[in-house]
Amino acid sequence: MLFGYARISTSSQNFNLQVDALLKAGVPEKNIYKDISSGAKANRKSLDLLISKLREDDTVVVWKMDRIARSVSHMLKLVDEFKNKEVAFKSIREPFIDTTSAHGKFIFTLFSAVAQLERDIIIERTLAGQESARRRGAKIGRKRGLSKEAQKKAILAESYYRDENKQLSITEIMKLLDIKSKPTLYKYLAHQGRRNCLVCKKLFWDKEQPLDEAYCEKHIKNL
Questions:
Q1: Phi then psi dihedrals of residue 193, to 5 deg
Q2: Which of 194, 197, 195 is nearest to 219 (CA)?
Q3: Torsions phi, psi of 196, nearest 5?
Q4: Which residues lie below 8 Å from residue 139, measured CB to CB, with a gap of 6+?
Q5: Per the confidence metrics, is the pTM higher than 0.70?
Q6: Cβ–Cβ contacts within 10 Å for residue 107, how many?
Q7: Do 65 and 72 touch, CB atoms closer than 8 A?
Q8: Does residue 106 have a pLDDT over 60?
Q9: Structural fold of domain 2-105
Q10: Nearest to residue 106, comparing CAs of 97, 114, 94?
Q11: Which residues participate in catalysis according to the annotation?
Q12: pLDDT exceeds 90 at position 9
């Protein structure tokens, strides 16, 4: 079965162009899901509803890839989710994006490689920075409690969590990094220095302060 997804950024815009293209591509009008949301926002109720309706051998069609994905990472997460459900994905304006074709699958393999390269660069830069700081005598984080693989996930979790451009949700970060539970994700973030001020509960980052007794810059001055 064909499903379509359309998105506009503000209510002053309209869906006509996208809907007309989806109808021409054979998507039944009743199967077209719409959201009014800026590209950066993670909350898209109709997209979530669409994904919940998908079954094996269905196909999701969009007018352009940027209507459904906020970033390359988000796009890969969606395609991976579609793949797990055995659902195909097509873009009308970008015919090379078509997971039903060998060429389309190859393109997404390249995208996956780029996303993995990005993750590797984040880890490499962070570890190099930490090593440089250690050579200068700085104490970096807490080593005990996380395996090497978990430490890599912790670095990526912090990067995704703090990236204002991607604005990934907690659920999206967990799926990207294959983290099974929220407590585990927050454990990784705490390892990277995520803290809440004991007084005002403000979120800040400081690896040196203990997790259960941390103070933001304002309140630590008052101690």
A1: 110, 10
A2: 197
A3: -120, 130
A4: 208
A5: no
A6: 15
A7: no
A8: yes
A9: Rossmann fold (3.40.50)
A10: 97
A11: 9
A12: no
Query: Roughly how many angstroms between the first and final C-alpha of the chain, as a whole number?
Result: 63
The token pair that represents 108 in the structure block: 């997404």
> Alpha helix (H) ranges present in 26-169?
45-53, 72-84, 102-135, 148-162
| Block residue for tokens 């950024």 | 9
Which range among 14-23, 40-49, 132-141, 161-170 shows the weakest confidence by mean pLDDT?
A: 132-141
pLDDT given for residue 134 in this prediction: 66
Which amino acid would we find at residue 189? Answer: L
Beta strands across the sheet bearing 32-36: 32-36, 2-8, 59-62, 88-91
**Alpha-carbon gap, residue 91 to 155, rounded angstroms:** 33
Q: What is the pLDDT of residue 49?
A: 93
Rounded-to-integer distance, Cα 134 and Cα 105, Å: 43
* 30, two tokens: 């009743």
Which range has the worst mean pLDDT, 45-49, 86-90, 102-106, 128-132?
Answer: 128-132
C-alpha count within 13 angstroms, C-beta hemisphere, residue 218: 9
